[in-house]
Design goal:
Strands 3-4-5-6-7-9-8 form a seven-stranded mixed sheet. It is globular, with a radius of gyration of 22 Å. It has six helices and nine strands. With 224 residues, the protein is an alpha+beta fold. 23% of the residues lie in helices and 30% in strands. Helix 5 links the parallel strand 6 and strand 7 (186-191). The model is unreliable at 71-77 (pLDDT under 50).
């Protein structure tokens, strides 16, 4: 007979009433919506999952569903990882683009790769989710000589992969890599003033507005 093992602490005096440990099998017997019942076991597995539903608008039902477990390990920041832009993926990186209404917020990746060739401290990386290139980042791996900060010079997620959490995950991966450098004490990023989505994303990861503007862009700092 398999021995059951429970871990963690139950909340004391919870507002919902008394709590107790139950097995997954017992929990599956509780009333829940069918769509949630199918996904419930995933909460007890290690890893990150993508769930895709195909919805029939006329019949108001799900006609297809797939669950994909994303790869972990290998130094990747789950659910994404960074790969240096080499010659074999350069063209694919250039072809990434934001939505049309976002074009004024970020330079093209071709321009960013040209800038990378001119700047000695920053390096270009492709952002991958599993084996799919979903975005691009250009950032300092050494202190920028003029201010000693580590700049995130460019960051974008392709229009086909927005809204899936790759922006936050990709930027987190960049921050993690920059923080590995012992001289990294301040990470700096900027955005066009009316790019409210970028402002929310950056502040959500701990950046704070400095009140400074460089080339018309608002500068934000993250103290490490």
């Amino acid at each position: 007979m398999r021995k059951r093992r429970y871990e963690g602490e139950l909340l004391a005096a919870p507002p919902e009433g008394e709590l107790r440990w139950v097995t997954i099998e017992d929990a599956m017997e509780l009333p829940m919506q069918p769509w949630f019942r199918k996904r419930f076991p995933l909460f007890f597995e290690e890893g990150t999952f993508e769930i895709h539903d195909v919805w029939d608008q006329e019949k108001q039902i799900t006609i297809a569903e797939s669950v994909k477990k994303l790869k972990t390990g290998g130094g990747c920041m789950d659910p994404v990882c960074l790969k240096p832009v080499t010659d074999d993926i350069r063209q694919q990186c250039i072809e990434l683009r934001p939505r049309d209404d976002q074009l004024r917020f970020v330079a093209s990746n071709l321009n960013s790769l040209q800038k990378a060739a001119e700047e000695k401290t920053c390096y270009p990386y492709a952002i991958y989710a599993d084996d799919v290139m979903v975005g691009f980042a250009l950032f300092d791996e050494e202190p920028y000589p003029e201010d000693g900060c580590f700049w995130i010079v460019r960051f974008m997620i392709d229009r086909n992969y927005q809204g899936r959490g790759y922006g936050k995950a990709g930027l987190s991966a960049v921050l993690r890599k920059q923080k590995e450098h012992p001289a990294c004490t301040v990470i700096r990023i900027s955005h066009v003033p009316d790019n409210t989505a970028a402002n929310r994303l950056y502040k959500g990861l701990g950046f704070k507005e400095t009140g400074q503007f460089i080339n018309g862009e608002l500068v934000l700092d993250l103290e490490v």
